Description:
Largest sheet: none
Number of helices: 1
Shape: rod-shaped
Structural class: mainly alpha
Radius of gyration: 34 Å
Helix content: over 70%
Order of helices and strands: H
Amino acid sequence: MLGPVVWIIVGLTTAGLLVLGALSVLAYREVAALARALSRSSERLSKAGADVERAAEAVARSGGAALLTTRAPSIQAPNGSA
């Protein structure tokens, strides 16, 4: 015959396992939410990178034309000032 101490131990062990199970479900849900948020952030970053790349191409094309039409500054000091 099992004494009352054994049943208390069995009850506490069962309660502890139920608490651990509930906490693991909560942790899984949070990890899944974090994974979704990271996926959305990754998609937004890749879209922003593509936008920057398109803008850089446009700037490079127009900037190249501007460099050919403007006069580059000289690094030499003007005559008479030294």
